[in-house]
Amino acid sequence: SHARALISVSGDKARTMLAKLSSIDLHPEIFPVGTAAATSIDHTSVTLWRGKNRQDGQAVFNLLVFATFAESLWHTMLDSAAEYGVTVAHSEELA
After folding, report:
1. Domains of the chain (ranges plus CATH)?
2. Using CA atoms, how far apart are residues 93 and 19, in angstroms rounded to an integer?
3. Would the pTM of this model clear 0.70, i.e. be above it?
4. For a disulfide at 89, which of 10, 39, 75, 93, Cβ 3.0-4.6 Å?
5. Checking DSSP bridges between strand 4-10 and strand 36-41, what pairing results, if any?
6. Is 61 exposed, middle or buried (0-12, 13-18, 19+ CB in 10 A)?
7. CA 30 to CA 35: how far, in whole Å?
8. 82, containing H or E segment
């Protein structure tokens, strides 16, 4: 863990929501499964990588952030996703 928190995002508008927060081109041809990048979102250092797609084909984006900034980043992401509707699930529910 190294004092970091993991946030995974998926769904129809996940890429669009993240594009509002980061300058990284997340198009699947540019940022395919397995690709990783260091970036900044809302003045927070983030390691972003594309995980294996869900069974329904939806892309999965993982964000690794220092734990002390995780709550702030989480709220920024919820604000960014609000216009698309958002559902929050715990990792146990996604297994």
Report:
1. 4-94 (3.30.1360.120)
2. 26
3. yes
4. 93
5. unpaired
6. buried
7. 9
8. none
pLDDT tens profile 8-57: 999 889 999 999 999 999 999 999 999 999 999 988 999 999 999 999 99
| pLDDT bracket for residue 93 (50, 70, 90) | low
Q: Assign residue 73 a region: left if phi > 0, alpha if psi is -120 to 50, beta otherwise?
A: alpha
- Alpha carbons within 13 angstroms on the beta-carbon side of residue 81 total 18
The arithmetic mean of pLDDT across residues 55-74, rounded, is: 93
SS3 letters for 15-81?
A: HHHHHCCCCCCCCCCCCCCCCEEEEEECCEEEEEEEECCCCCCCCEEEEEEEHHHHHHHHHHHHHHH
**85: which DSSP letter?**
-
